[in-house]
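Researcher: Here's my situation. A collaborator sent me these components and asked whether they could plausibly form a single complex. I don't have experimental data yet, so a predicted model of the whole assembly would be a useful starting point for our discussion.
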Amino acid sequence: MATSPFIIVAIDGGAASGKSTSSKVLADRFNLLHVDTGSFYRAVTAEFLRRGVAATDQPGVRAAAAALKFGTQVRGRSAQMEIDGRVVPDADIRSRTVNDHVSHFAAIPEVRTALLAYQRGLAGVARARGLQGVVMEGRDIGSVIFPDADFRFFLHAHPAERARRRASEGQQDSIVERDRIDSSRKTAPLACPPGATTIDTTHLTPAQVVDTMAAPIAARTATP
Ligand code: DC
């Protein structure tokens, strides 16, 4: 039997567009490392706030970003970023305060540079663990992190539906405002990369979103 190739799946889109739910299922179905890069920007933001560094203090951000030491824990098939030897707890990175600040820190080029090599290096982590590839979700995965990804998807949904999804998770999140900042920044803005498959998830169930992405992946791998 032919062995499956190592694959990179890039999934980009705005807040609550359906990226996390679908990429976790794809990771399990195709034995891939699941990487939620939004959680990295959130963890870095929580760390800056903990250290009292403001996004408006660019020299302070630059110095703090350069000093951060990143590591990785793999839990199940999920990559968790360590900062200075510690995974920042989920409750801290999904707080209202982090929701309000994360786009401002993510717009700073030095913050993105600090995370770039780390994110690319996770392909090596997946290989070392014997996984079949990586499914990475974010805003600039198909455009900047892995422009040569084997599969590139861009998810979007109506803002009212996205607000409903966040509320059903019990989260307070200014989705439209975050998307505005993420789309208008100069470095690696949120945008559909050329050649990506666009999926409007507004009226699709999570299973339908997964099936849309899984079909071309299954056709290229040995996994059904
Ligand atoms: O996916 P999320 O909503 O948890 O992401 C939080 C923020 O992180 C998002 O508003 C913008 C930033 N982000 C980014 O700039 N680039 C990525 N690849 C992922 C997230």
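Model: Some features of this prediction you could bring to your collaborator: The chain has a mean pLDDT of 93. The chain has one domain: 7-221.
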